[in-house]
């Protein structure tokens, strides 16, 4: 079983959205995928009934190795709580969504410190909610170079298909082929790291 943890010490950056979309992508490609929600706010849990092809398992089941899946995708809270430490200890890859803004990049410092403490070896920063007119600025790229976590090649743009993706069983249930290609590219990059 491989475990992908989606983490970032900031809310509203797309952790839950990317967790469910990559999980749905892997499930569409035949993997036995489970999702787990380590965020007490429970956004992923609340969405799970709408997501076909994904089984919601508890964090406890994952920790006890009872999830019975090829792949588990775990959504986490922006808080550095006990569950975060426990699931990071199991992570094969940590996906870190970051919005391309100055304050968003600064929030990465806390996340990077937590990952270092957890001894995480494989992680990637995914730029999310990139805007066309305001594509990732040189300032943000320079700031990102100050972090030891590699930046993924894929960028996820701001698209309505993502906002609606809980209702459409992911972007693959929409007709937005650009969003679909972004999730596919992101998933492939993650697979290369597993
Ligand atoms: N790439 C994107 N384009 C448009 N809306 C997005 C995108 N990523 C996330 N969102 C929206 O932004 C909001 C916050 O995303 P969410 O996944 O809940 O963040 P987090 O789990 O980090 O708090 C949600 O309303 C979600 O639908
Ligand atoms: Mg969330």
Automatic annotation (TrEMBL):
InterPro entries: CobQ/CobB/MinD/ParA_Nub-bd_dom, DNA_Partitioning_ATPase, P-loop_NTPase
Entries under SUPFAM superfamilies matching the protein: P-loop containing nucleoside triphosphate hydrolases
Domain CobQ/CobB/MinD/ParA nucleotide binding: 4-165
Pfam families (alphabetical): CbiA (PF01656)
CDD domains, per the entry: ParAB_family
Domain of life: Bacteria
Protein name: ParA family protein
Lineage: Bacteria, Pseudomonadati, Bacteroidota, Cytophagia, Cytophagales
Membrane-spanning intervals of the chain: none
């Amino acid at each position: 079983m491989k475990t992908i943890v989606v983490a970032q010490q900031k809310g509203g950056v797309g952790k839950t959205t990317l967790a469910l979309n990559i999980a749905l992508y892997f499930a569409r490609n035949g993997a036995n995928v489970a999702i787990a929600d380590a965020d007490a706010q429970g956004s992923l849990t609340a969405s799970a009934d709408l997501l076909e092809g994904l089984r919601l398992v508890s964090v406890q089941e994952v920790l006890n190795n009872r999830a019975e899946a090829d792949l588990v995708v775990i959504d986490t809270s922006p808080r550095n709580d006990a569950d975060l430490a426990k699931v990071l200890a199991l992570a094969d890859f940590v996906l870190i969504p970051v919005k391309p803004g100055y304050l968003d990049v600064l929030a990465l410092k806390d996340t990077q410190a937590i990952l270092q403490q957890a001894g995480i070896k494989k992680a990637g920063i995914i730029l999310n909610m990139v805007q066309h007119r305001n594509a990732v600025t040189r300032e943000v790229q320079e700031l990102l170079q100050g972090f030891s976590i590699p930046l993924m090649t894929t960028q996820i743009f701001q698209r309505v298909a993502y906002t609606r993706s809980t209702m459409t069983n992911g972007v693959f249930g929409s007709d937005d082929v650009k969003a679909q290609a972004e999730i596919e590219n992101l998933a492939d990059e993650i697979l290369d790291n597993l």
